[in-house]
């Protein structure tokens, strides 16, 4: 039994709702000592040398790296987000500190969001709304999802959930990951990343859900965008840096490329600045990094951390452990 565990919570808005009470109940049930402290970014350097566990509740914070030192005592950092690439750095990668993430929390909301984006373009909801505002009654014959081909780039849990949902509505799904697979239970065939040039033009929709790594950074280049199928759509719910947004803007503004439209929920700079040229790009749907957020998501993030904290206090292995070299939780396919 691990006793007297000290937990720091990085949160500019104070202690997350219900966390203090739930931690106290857990500690009493297990007979463990837990000291819970909330801190701001300015206090983080000090708390990293006083605590065993860090809950990075402000998961967009970049304060861990500048606050890190050789005197850090933290042995476990939990990031309540799917992506942890922006907070990994050499000192943390080399340290014995375990990093966990919120894998599993955002799978269904993001996959539903992807489906919604596809439907928006296939069923011309944006055009219908514009015509209604102008009081124009214009009949059209939109596309159907059944039989359309979709490439899901990223074979982690979010990609798998997305593949299952899109397959359920009749779309023909192919995956893309680190290595080629002839058959996968969720995707069917899986293309290796290096196969995308020359193959990406086979798909009506391309969905980016890959983690950000040295391999995937900038993978959706101007060259690949130019190879997409005529009238196809691109959706990015992964990381902004996966995509060359300048090239995307160029393609959509010109109206001469193959893309029929794109939906972006993630960007290199967030929030997207008001003066960003992306706001006025035609046939570009922009949302404020909300594809994984639905009612009750914060409660689920809290409960997931508590479940892992119970494992920690009981001396059991943690789940959702990030491979710090790769930058994500490795997936074991069944």
UniProtKB/TrEMBL annotation:
GO molecular function: NAD binding; oxidoreductase activity, acting on the CH-OH group of donors, NAD or NADP as acceptor
Family annotation (Gene3D superfamilies): NAD(P)-binding Rossmann-like Domain (3.40.50.720)
Keyword NAD recorded: yes
Ribonucleoprotein keyword on record: no
One Pfam assignment: 2-Hacid_dh_C
All copies of domain D-isomer specific 2-hydroxyacid dehydrogenase NAD-binding, residue ranges: 115-291
InterPro entries (UniProt xref): D-isomer_DH_CS, D-isomer_DH_NAD-bd, NAD(P)-bd_dom_sf
Keywords: NAD, Oxidoreductase
The protein, known as: D-2-hydroxyacid dehydrogenase
Species in which this protein is naturally found: Acidipropionibacterium jensenii
UniProt lineage: Bacteria, Bacillati, Actinomycetota, Actinomycetes, Propionibacteriales
């Amino acid at each position: 039994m691990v006793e007297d565990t000290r937990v720091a919570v990085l949160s500019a808005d104070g202690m997350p709702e219900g966390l203090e009470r739930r931690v106290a109940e857990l500690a009493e049930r297990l007979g463990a000592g837990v000291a819970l402290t909330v801190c701001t970014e300015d206090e983080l350097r000090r708390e990293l040398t006083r605590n065993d566990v860090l809950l990075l509740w402000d998961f967009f914070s970049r304060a861990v790296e500048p606050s890190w030192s050789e005197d850090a005592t933290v042995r476990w950092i939990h990031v309540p987000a799917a992506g942890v690439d922006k907070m990994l750095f050499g000192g943390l990668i080399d340290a014995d500190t375990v990093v966990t993430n919120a894998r599993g929390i955002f799978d269904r909301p993001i996959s539903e969001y992807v489906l919604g984006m596809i439907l928006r373009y296939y069923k011309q909801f944006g055009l219908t709304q514009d015509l209604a505002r102008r009081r124009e009654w214009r009949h059209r014959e939109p596309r159907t999802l059944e039989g359309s081909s979709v490439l899901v780039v990223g074979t982690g849990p979010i990609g798998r959930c997305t593949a299952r949902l899109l397959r359920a509505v009749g779309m023909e799904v192919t995956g893309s990951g680190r290595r080629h697979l002839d058959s996968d239970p969720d995707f069917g065939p899986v293309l290796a990343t290096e196969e995308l040039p020359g193959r990406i033009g086979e798909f009506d929709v391309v969905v980016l859900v890959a983690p950000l790594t040295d391999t995937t950074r900038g993978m959706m280049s101007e060259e690949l965008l130019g190879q997409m199928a005529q009238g196809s759509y691109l959706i990015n719910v992964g990381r902004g840096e996966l995509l060359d947004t300048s090239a995307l803007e160029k393609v959509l503004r010109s109206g001469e490329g193959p893309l029929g439209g794109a939906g972006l929920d993630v960007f290199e700079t967030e929030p997207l600045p008001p003066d960003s040229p992306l706001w006025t790009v035609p046939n570009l749907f922009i949302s404020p990094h909300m594809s994984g957020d639905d009612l009750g998501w914060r409660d689920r993030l809290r409960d997931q951390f508590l479940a892992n904290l119970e494992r920690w206090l009981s001396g059991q292995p943690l789940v959702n452990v990030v491979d710090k070299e790769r930058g994500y939780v490795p997936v074991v396919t069944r």
